[in-house]
Amino acid sequence: xxxxxxxxxxxxxxxxxxxxxxxxxxxxxxxxxxxxxxxxxxxxxxxxxxxxxxxxxxxxxxxxxxxxxxxxxxxxxxxxxxxxxxxxxxxxxxxxxxxxxxxxxxxxxxxxxxxxxxxxxxxxxxxxxxxxxxxxxxxxxxxxxxxxxxxxxxxxxxxxxxxxxxxxxxxxxxxxxxxxxxxxxxxxxxxxxxxxxxxxxxxxxxxxxxxxxxxxxxxxxxxxxxxxxxxxxxxxxxxxxxxxxxxxxxxxxxxxxxxxxxxxxxxxxxxxxxxxxxxxxxxxxxxxxxxxxx
Length: 294
Prior knowledge:
This protein is α/β, with parallel strands linked by helices.
């Protein structure tokens, strides 16, 4: 009798490689120029999982076969990331005006991006895509808040139709405001991508207390560190994991109570990204394994 086997597509093999307990890295942290350089950079970090920036795959021909390249290298896809159009991170004020789905002028382009990303995520077998919603106004009666939530409902429904959940990045509002907005959103499938450094960079509260408050909705966590600003209204400073203000042992104790939480290392500053990711991996593995070193 002829032996038969069941073969997965390259995308399926990528998604099913590894588990949520294993650390991964954000693709954009490594600043790759194409899928081959991404594979090389991920391998240099010693990790085997990645959160994949989706816009290059949608806009750049050189990236079209990224899923297959990663799968062939044994690198698993943990989630995707959708970058919104026109975002200006040069100052806190500029990103408040341009960030996420809030600006009217970029909404049509962001909806176009979202449609492409949802279809792409489904094709790659992804079940989670993260993005910045933009600054959600604290006042429930603020027309800007109602507009943001209505747009988020549209995106949630769009991605859900492709079998994909959304997670909102933290930092641009307090945990309290985000909890209230998620309840008002009335889309229980929408969760949170918790970034402790963003809470510090934006001056939006204590990361440990914020994670505890958001825990029921947290679907993924970025491992990133930062120091707070000494000048109100300006950015804090991102630093390598373990060298900032994040209290990692306390934070990871809370994270350990969140079922199936994937942790993805993100590094968005400095010239030694691969070395910094490797350092983060070593420290996180030590802390999660019960070591007392910081």
